[in-house]
């Protein structure tokens, strides 16, 4: 007999909530039962425009969603400055928490959120969608192959897009009172997560911000970069920006091979995602090419990555509800490591690009 679907409430009507509400509908083990906004009219319009079930309840406050006994879990796409308050309150109300990224303004805030989730026995997961795509597992298998890839030596990641005039004037991600981390918290989160994923979540020892980040008039970061260094000699760089053309690259260099992916954050096609590898390549005669050449690997999926994320989260919640399982600690641990590196890069920027030790 199939387990009943996990019942989601959504706090807020952010644009990203359109994508995730669709994912909740597509995932086979979840359903939307409530949405709340500061305005009942806004919540009603959002539910109608995004095809919510007719049975979904609409509220004019976030508290009402958390007080609804029919809500098992909440998705929180609110501005980062509001995460501490509402994620903690959700956990205290025994609601499982799927939290948009960046999960907090700093690791001190995140620790309060994670402690609340642990104390209440609820599952925590951040909404980093690409980690749930089957391509991610396939890429990891290549990186783990000592013959094809070898030892990881260097990593490079970029996530940027052009925000445009309206974005750079009005979007919450450039407002110091709403999302003070700016591009570092938004696009930089993905770059840092990709680097940590590739290193099996081994934290770097040192983070050093690169000179000349760009800020708006309110002091919010619009673009920045950093280098990361590990004790074993690995090095990584990343660049994140609201000011350069859409780029979503990872490049991983090993002693025997390399891996490239050009759309790691959001695949260019929803149902198929490629990556490119080379192994044991050498120049051919007169350096007219290389052998073997790079090969393309295309990974198909029946569900988009955001629906797979919801499915994984709902599966964990269902295990806790129906089987008495304990919350999976992997996800909060990964979130915390990502936040720790963001904090170190931000500290390096604030200290005039001095190297900063990464402390977990």
CATH level 1 class label of the largest domain: Alpha Beta
CATH topology of the largest domain: Dihydrodipicolinate Reductase, domain 2
Shape: globular
Which radius of gyration do the C-alpha atoms yield?
21 Å
Notes on the protein architecture:
This is Gfo/Idh/MocA-like oxidoreductase N-terminal domain-containing protein. Residues 146-259 form the GFO/IDH/MocA-like oxidoreductase domain. InterPro entries: Gfo/Idh/MocA-like_OxRdtase_N, GFO_IDH_MocA-like_dom, NAD(P)-bd_dom_sf. Belongs to the Gfo/Idh/MocA family. Residues 6-125 form the Gfo/Idh/MocA-like oxidoreductase N-terminal domain. With 360 residues, this protein is α/β, with parallel strands linked by helices. The chain folds into two domains: 6-128, Rossmann fold; 130-304 and 339-357, Dihydrodipicolinate Reductase, domain 2, CATH 3.30.360. It is 35% helix and 25% strand. It contains ten helices and 18 strands. The strands form three sheets. Strands 7, 8, 9, 10, 11, 12, 13, 14, 17 and 18 form a ten-stranded mixed sheet that branches. Strands 3-2-1-4-5-6 form a six-stranded parallel sheet, with helices on both faces. It has a two-stranded antiparallel sheet with strand order 15-16. Strand 9 and strand 10 (221-229) form a beta hairpin. Helix 4 packs parallel to helix 5 (107-120), helix 5 (107-120) packs antiparallel against helix 10 (330-350) and helix 8 (182-198) packs across helix 10 (330-350). The termini are far apart. The model has no long low-confidence stretch (mean pLDDT 96).
């Amino acid at each position: 007999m199939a387990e009943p679907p996990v019942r989601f409430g959504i706090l807020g009507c952010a644009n990203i909530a359109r994508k995730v509400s669709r994912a909740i509908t597509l995932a086979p083990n979840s359903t939307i039962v409530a949405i709340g906004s500061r305005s009942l009219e806004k919540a009603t319009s959002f539910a109608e425009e995004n095809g919510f079930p007719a049975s979904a309840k609409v509220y004019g406050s976030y508290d009402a969603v958390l007080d609804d006994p029919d809500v098992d879990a909440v998705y929180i796409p609110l501005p980062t400055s509001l995460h501490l308050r509402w994620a903690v309150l959700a956990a205290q109300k025994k609601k499982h928490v799927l939290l948009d990224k960046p999960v907090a303004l700093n690791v001190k805030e995140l620790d309060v959120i994670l402690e609340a989730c642990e104390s209440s026995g609820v599952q925590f997961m951040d909404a980093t969608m690409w980690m749930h795509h089957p391509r991610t597992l396939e890429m990891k298998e290549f990186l783990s192959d000592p013959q094809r890839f070898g030892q990881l030596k260097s990593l490079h990641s970029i996530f940027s897009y052009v925000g445009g005039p309206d974005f750079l004037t009005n979007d919450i991600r450039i407002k110091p009172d709403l999302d003070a981390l700016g591009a570092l918290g938004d696009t930089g989160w993905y770059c840092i997560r990709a680097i940590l994923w590739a290193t099996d979540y081994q934290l770097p020892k040192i983070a050093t911000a690169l000179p000349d980040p760009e800020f708006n008039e309110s002091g919010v970061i619009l673009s920045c970069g950093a280098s990361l260094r590990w004790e074993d000699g690995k090095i990584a760089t990343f660049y994140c920006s609201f000011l350069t053309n859409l780029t979503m690259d990872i490049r991983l260099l090993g002693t025997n091979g390399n891996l490239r992916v050009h759309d790691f954050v959001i695949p260019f096609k929803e149902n198929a995602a490629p990556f490119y590898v080379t192994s044991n390549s050498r120049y051919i005669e007169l350096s007219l090419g290389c052998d073997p050449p790079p090969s393309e690997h295309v990974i198909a999926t029946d569900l988009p990555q955001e629906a797979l994320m919801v499915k994984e989260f709902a599966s964990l919640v269902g295990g806790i509800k129906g089987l008495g399982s304990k919350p999976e600690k992997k996800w909060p641990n990964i979130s915390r490591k990502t936040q720790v590196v963001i904090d170190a890069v931000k500290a390096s920027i604030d200290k005039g690009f001095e190297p900063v030790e990464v402390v977990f």
